[in-house]
Each structure stands twice: as C-alpha cells, then as structure tokens.
Amino acid sequence: MRTRELLTLRNTGHPGINALFAKAHSADWDIENDVDWTQRVAPDDPLVDPDWNAFGQTQTFRSLPQVVQVRVTRGGLGRILNILQVGESVAQDVCAKLALLVHEEDYRNHAVAQAMDEARHHLAYRRFLAKMDDPVEDIDVGTEMMFDSLLAADDPLELVATEQFFLESFAMGIFEGLVQHARHPLLKRMVSLITRDESRHIGFGVLYVAEWLRRQPLEGRIRFARRWLGQILGAVGDRPGPILLSRLIERLRAAGVDRPEALAPRLLHEQQELNAAEDAALLSGRKLPHLLKNARHAGLLQPEIVAALGLENHPLVRVTLQQPLGEQQPIADEPGPAA
C-alpha cells in the first residue's frame, strides 16, 4: 500500500459492515476494569460443570470420585483455553494482514478493530490460565497445522472465509458451552465478554462472504460452496469419539485412576447413546449450529448451489433451510454483570 492508494480508499457503504465497526466502540470493554481479576481460582475448583467435558455426561464418568472429576475437568478446560489463546493470536495476525491487503475503508476499519479485540482476548485467556496454575496440555498436531496454514495465507477471501466465517462460527459453540457451564464467576464473565466480541467478528465474515458471492458467476459460487460446505457439514456432525476418548483416558491416568483404559468401552458405548440424542436434536431443528445458520445467511445454501452440489436431500441442509432465516448476522446482546 502506498500513500496515493491511502488517499483514495473507498468505503463500500455496506450498512452492516459499517455498523459493526461502530458497534466495536459502543460495546467495547476494558480488560482491567470490566473483569475482576482479584478473584481467586482455587486448585480444587472444577471451574466448569463436569458435564461440560466430552464423556462428562456418561454414567461411568459421573460415578468417578469427585476429586478425579475435578482434575479431569480442569485438564480439559486448560487444553481448550490454551487453544483459544493461541487462536486469538492467529486471528490478530489475520486481521493485521487484512488491514494491509484490502483497499475498502470499511473492511480495513473492521480488521483493525478486531485486531484490538483479539489482543484483549489473548491476554484474558493467558491471565486465566496463569490463575489456574495447572500444567497445560500442548495443542494437537491437527490444530497446529490448521493455524500454520492460515498464517501462511495472504488472499483476503481465504483469510476471512477461514477465520471470521468458518473458525469463529465453529468456536461460537465452544464459547456458548463455556458460558452455560461455567461455575467460576471470573471465567463466566470473561468468556461472556469475549463471546460478545466474537459475534461481531462472525457478522463481518458472513457479510464479507455474502458480498463476495453476490459478485460471482454461478460457477464461482458453486466452487466456493463445494469447498466450504464439505467442511461445515463434517464439522457439525462431529461427535465425541475415539480421539477425545484417548485424551480422557490419559487425563484419568494422570488423576490417579488405575487402568483407566478398562473404562473405555463403557465410556464409548454410553457416549454413543448421548451422540444419538444430539443428532436427533440437530435433525429436528431444535439445536442448529452457528455454522449451518451462517452458511445460509452468507448464501451458500441458495437453491441453485444446493442443486448443483446434489445436496437437496442432505438431512442437515434440509433442516437448515426449513428454519426461519432470522437476523442477517448475529450481534450478541451485552452480557449482564458478573455473577
């Protein structure tokens, strides 16, 4: 970008994207004054309901000693918060790239505002992990490869579609689960504030993708949808299985459970019954994930695209299209005071 280019930046005039930038200021929060960091995090506090864990709602897990449940729950929470804190740093890099790559003034403005949000989120997660003072599990290879691929990208569409549209829509389910199950008021307050910010980021991703698709010929829209719908449909249908079970077994072993692998068949069988209930709720439309709702908002489920991809009878596509369309983008309400 050169000075003369900065003199001629164009604002697209998109009311939704410009409103998101304004919302970034009116809904801003202060990491020092809006969160009470003096609250103690006790070493025996599970911090979230044990039900939050993968396999945490199984009868076998619930029958374990309380001290084991607490240690395993904290281990799982620490892993997720560690992934989230590095994910915020990745998002900060993505936004910095976008601010340098795009020539639309309103897009640049949102990217810079989001970068500030991501820096605040990263710091909040790091502070909470420090207060937990537990050993933190390393991120898995798959997550690291995904982040590295995103960090290496330099195409604005690739950056926005991956970060603001896909990853943040996927992560919204994690944020909402943490808010719902958090027992500790500091964790609940912190994640509630972060969730409010993330809803704006998703809104930008949805609107950006929708605008890009609107300008493309049918072939381009189909090509884009083919790539992303495959990932979306795979992600929303994923349920706790052998990979998460292997992590749970290692946490049980670290918590002092003798031969925890002997519990694996029962845990898996009981979780499969819970998975079936989750699938039924999804297919009934009672529990539609953000990824599917946002795919529809962005235009990936337009009739001509669905027909071209042969997805007319896909159960997840059908149930998504049967639901009321709702708001164009999710903007979270301001959370109430800390519990």
Describe it for me?
With 339 residues, this protein is mainly α. The chain has a single domain, classed as Orthogonal Bundle (Ribonucleotide Reductase, subunit A), CATH 1.10.620. 67% of the residues lie in helices and 0% in strands. The longest helix has 36 residues. It is globular and about 65 Å long. The relative contact order is 0.13. The C terminus is likely disordered.
What's the overall average pLDDT, rounded? Answer: 93
Q: CATH superfamily, please?
A: Ribonucleotide Reductase, subunit A
Indicate the radius of gyration in whole angstroms.
21 Å
CATH architecture tag: Orthogonal Bundle
Are there runs of 5+ residues with pLDDT below 50, and where? 327-339
Shape: globular
Tell me roughly what share of residues is in helical segments: 55-70%
Helix and strand sequence: HHHHHHHHHHHHHH
What number of structural domains do the residues give? 1
**Number of helices in the DSSP assignment:** 14
Largest sheet: none
Distance between the termini: 47 Å
